[in-house]
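Sample intake — DNA polymerase III subunit delta'
Collected from: Salibacterium lacus
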Amino acid sequence: MDWNRMMEDQPVVMTMLKQSMEKDRLAHAYIFEGMRGAGKKHAAWLTARSLFCPYRENAAPCGECRECRRIEHGNHPDIIVVEPDGASIKKAQVEALQKEMTYKGMETSFKIYIINDADRMTAGAANSLLKFLEEPESPILALLLTENVHFMLDTILSRAQKLSFAPPAPEKRARFYREEGASETAAPLLARLPDEAAGDYQGEATDWIVQGRALVIQLVEEVHSRPHQVLLTLQEKWLAHFKDREELDIGLDLLLFWYRDLLTVKHNGQDLAYPDQRETMENQGLQMPETEIARILQLILDAKRKLRANVNAQLLMEHLLLRLQEGS
């Protein structure tokens, strides 16, 4: 992604970075936080290219020089990237980073390190980084990237400037998930789920989402056309698929997306979580006033809140489905 495109997608963040670079007032550490697909990694690498590019103009790197090309290919010796080793970023990784940062830049006096998924640092790693953030031994820029800033230590947050990336449009997120291996039917749903939920169901594991999607379509059809079948489907299929509270919460989200799509279709909108079901929704929408759809959306949101309050999951779903049928 080039600088101008990133300026269009994230104008607030990129303008702040641009102004800081033009005035030579970059902070020594930044936290780039925002949803998956918002462009945090692109912004980090564009920032690096801008700082090393000898031909940058208005903070935008040229993209053609030797420095820009090396950074684009990930082989600049003065840029260090840290990724989770398995499930977490470990203390030893941060210590190795600190050691590397004590050496003089191989080609410049300046060094940059990028930590992806910074919220996944262990307590030991986070505490090691904290000391490093407080007392950098040479000109260093730290870029910490996270989708879950609330999982990071307050002491780290207080020593870095936080830049919040605006959520990307659903279609952009869907494209990101398709590139990661999600199917055409799963991607629009993953794009609308919170990162902590969607992140677990990427790639090959999207079969679970696709199966859940099919259950939503079946359940909605039964609620409005075959109400005598609903509780049987709940017992035999729904609760067998959405086994725990976290999974059931995702199931409620998938149900919520259906009725949101129904409203979108009634207003001739195009951006749908279930794009291949448009004809079904048009027919269903003819039979349901907007007030009824709004009532159902509120019922599902109430069910999500009750689920987090440890209400019995089976009783919760039975009650919800009975309430959904009241207007049918």
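Post-analysis note: The longest helix spans residues 245-266.
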